[in-house]
């Protein structure tokens, strides 16, 4: 731990004008306020803010940031207040301490709330003052260095996961690669101890076998550049364990197949020397096409600048080389923290320069959604973030749709979802979301999830809720069919059926509620004969077993039922409202609805038949057509125009035959009823573009 005079001297070394007395007061203040508090390591608690302040001095940050680091836990963990901080250290420090305190409070929120809000709060804090974020990142880095002292494994895992998912990517976002790498390494060791141990062991084996190969290659590169008159510094290292692990997972390769484990850095004096060095290396060793990146002429959004290339070194060894100036290197390792410190030395352009950089980061907006949309974080490549119109942020797997988003917000919203606006535009519910999308869910309290949604939702919560809702709806609708069938069964028994008879039947069948009986009838889990016998015992005596019990005197309306739930429209004949229909009922299956003239009905002669009728308000189905067009320009467009004029939506169009001068298509279109379908057929047959049009 830094002693008081050591901390003050470090600040005065790079900022001789710093207020020494105020720095001393801040050090004493944090020691007094934290008093006898202890950390998990057993060290005095005040050692933590002192170490965080030390990290800030390494970045040569201004006095207010150093004092904020010293005081950042006093408001949350002691009796000190923001007013006390302002009274002793001024409004600027009070504002910064308040910002860090608000970020820290997020960590005490429940897991689901914290996961949804953390990133947005960090981005908003960064847009207000980058120093708030810098202190918080240093706070987390020091906490990760002492993570192993926490005895609770679940708590260690939670902190490590949060570090990997939130803090390390944010460090990268603001260009603090040194912080990012150390956070990732420490979190990786906790989250994947076996993977960490395996990779570090393999790296150790490589070091023992290569006989100083890394140093030898670095020396060779330096000598070659020196021969060309360039004065450079060259250093080499193996890539970090987490970087190797991530590459193995990303490329689906083994450790042996990761070819660029060694990386070398060349530091020059000027940008011109960077490009000269690149040319010399490319003419000395073969470079790998597709592996060269020029981040000097086109910097990353966080300000990172460097040349990256990969070379085929001797013995077919691939090595990665980064070339940059010394000033670029300083900026690259500590990102905006380094830029802040640099600009503070520029009296005329200090605060203005920082604001200009901040505006560049948030893409000329303080809107967190817009900032997130432009953020490219490798760690988040398997997930996306989307916002509600009010700015609440939700984390979803990559490939998630508006339906997944609706269920992530609230199960009730998912259940009532009927449509979605993505970034202000109406889009299909199956549309995959992208990072930064603003999603507005359109709901209808009377709506219900569709079975077809299961084909595109990706979250477990959405899938479970949809299945549960469909099962409940299916039971209700099958029971509704069963209730209509029960009326006909009851009409065939030699007695008037009332509530008493139904209660007796339930008792004989071992059922609890009338709905159980109706569902069993609708799902063909019980025969008509069994129902009649349960209602009036002995009433079926003398009746032959093979008599067809399902012959109906009246049709059963299917109005209000949902296709795919209580019944399915057969795809062989595509019945539409207005066709005469019949239902085929098999045990344990939904009712399959056919047009009465469907040839497939011959295969269902041993099944339970139900005479059905469309409800009075039944509208909408899919009709199937076979259309043959003349094979000449414009005929397909003319057919599409006929569909559009008749307000029919084409769902499927498949070319089935090309036999000059004709082209045949199988087409599925959404129509209101059989009259609508017949009008479309008439319009097609009247067209000069159509040789033949028939309903399938």
TrEMBL record:
<dbReference type="InterPro" id="IPR006674">
    <property type="entry name" value="HD_domain"/>
</dbReference>
<keyword id="KW-0378">Hydrolase</keyword>
<feature type="domain" description="TGS">
    <location>
        <begin position="382"/>
        <end position="443"/>
    </location>
</feature>
<dbReference type="GO" id="GO:0015949">
    <property type="term" value="P:nucleobase-containing small molecule interconversion"/>
</dbReference>
<dbReference type="GO" id="GO:0008893">
    <property type="term" value="F:guanosine-3',5'-bis(diphosphate) 3'-diphosphatase activity"/>
</dbReference>
<dbReference type="InterPro" id="IPR012675">
    <property type="entry name" value="Beta-grasp_dom_sf"/>
</dbReference>
<comment type="similarity">
    <text>Belongs to the relA/spoT family.</text>
</comment>
<dbReference type="InterPro" id="IPR012676">
    <property type="entry name" value="TGS-like"/>
</dbReference>
<dbReference type="InterPro" id="IPR004095">
    <property type="entry name" value="TGS"/>
</dbReference>
<dbReference type="InterPro" id="IPR043519">
    <property type="entry name" value="NT_sf"/>
</dbReference>
<dbReference type="Pfam" id="PF04607">
    <property type="entry name" value="RelA_SpoT"/>
</dbReference>
<dbReference type="GO" id="GO:0008728">
    <property type="term" value="F:GTP diphosphokinase activity"/>
</dbReference>
<dbReference type="InterPro" id="IPR002912">
    <property type="entry name" value="ACT_dom"/>
</dbReference>
<dbReference type="Pfam" id="PF19296">
    <property type="entry name" value="RelA_AH_RIS"/>
</dbReference>
<dbReference type="GO" id="GO:0005886">
    <property type="term" value="C:plasma membrane"/>
</dbReference>
<dbReference type="GO" id="GO:0042594">
    <property type="term" value="P:response to starvation"/>
</dbReference>
<feature type="domain" description="HD">
    <location>
        <begin position="45"/>
        <end position="144"/>
    </location>
</feature>
<dbReference type="InterPro" id="IPR033655">
    <property type="entry name" value="TGS_RelA/SpoT"/>
</dbReference>
<dbReference type="InterPro" id="IPR045600">
    <property type="entry name" value="RelA/SpoT_AH_RIS"/>
</dbReference>
<feature type="domain" description="ACT">
    <location>
        <begin position="624"/>
        <end position="696"/>
    </location>
</feature>
<protein>
    <recommendedName>
        <fullName>GTP pyrophosphokinase rsh</fullName>
        <ecNumber>2.7.6.5</ecNumber>
    </recommendedName>
</protein>
<dbReference type="InterPro" id="IPR003607">
    <property type="entry name" value="HD/PDEase_dom"/>
</dbReference>
<dbReference type="Pfam" id="PF02824">
    <property type="entry name" value="TGS"/>
</dbReference>
<dbReference type="InterPro" id="IPR004811">
    <property type="entry name" value="RelA/Spo_fam"/>
</dbReference>
<dbReference type="Pfam" id="PF13328">
    <property type="entry name" value="HD_4"/>
</dbReference>
<dbReference type="GO" id="GO:0015969">
    <property type="term" value="P:guanosine tetraphosphate metabolic process"/>
</dbReference>
<dbReference type="Pfam" id="PF13291">
    <property type="entry name" value="ACT_4"/>
</dbReference>
<comment type="function">
    <text>In eubacteria ppGpp (guanosine 3'-diphosphate 5'-diphosphate) is a mediator of the stringent response that coordinates a variety of cellular activities in response to changes in nutritional abundance.</text>
</comment>
<dbReference type="InterPro" id="IPR007685">
    <property type="entry name" value="RelA_SpoT"/>
</dbReference>
<dbReference type="InterPro" id="IPR045865">
    <property type="entry name" value="ACT-like_dom_sf"/>
</dbReference>
